[in-house]
Amino acid sequence: MKLDELNIKILNCLQHNARQSNAEIGRQVGITSPAVSERIKKMEDLGIIEGYKAMVAPLEMGYQLKAIITLRAFMGKLKPFLDKVKNFDEVVNCYRITGDENIVMEVVLKNQKHLEAFIDNLIIYGESKTQIVLSRVIRHKSIKAAE
After folding, report:
1. Any idea what DSSP says for residue 125?
2. Which of 6, 103, 124, 127 could staple 71 via S-S, CB 3.0–4.6 A?
């Protein structure tokens, strides 16, 4: 499906605030609430809109550290890791990547001791490298439609 200008405007509205009503989105883009609803439903059905979520502040949830951890899997350990990583509560994002490492993860941890224990869990799967996140530069950036 090629996204038209109205669908792109609707997506921008949803990425800015997915909780706003279809009527409010309609006012912003110049169409009726039912038309907005129909377009959103079609984009959901086509997988363009993958879902909706609440953005939670890790610090407010008791997590004092955020880290980016890369993993270079040992021979034969990538598949077992890919199965196991889904069960790690600390992992908020995980990507399989190209390059020297196989995996990059964004993790949230309660403290240094928690980080140490988490890294200890990774040792059986491969060699890890950890970078502590100091601050977020971009909070949330809308994805623009490809030309």
Report:
1. T
2. 103
Task: List Cβ neighbours of 143 (8 Å cut-off, separation of 6 or more).
Answer: 11, 15
Q: Are 14 and 29 in contact (CB under 8 A)?
A: no
Q: What is the pLDDT of residues 34-83, one digit of tens each?
A: 999 999 999 999 999 999 988 888 888 889 999 999 999 999 999 999 99
Q: What phi, psi does 50 have (nearest 5°)?
A: -85, -25
CA separation for the pair 145, 47 (Å, rounded): 14
Nearest residue to 104 (alpha-carbon basis) of 71, 142, 136: 71
> CA separation (Å) from 125 to 3, 103, 128?
42, 11, 9
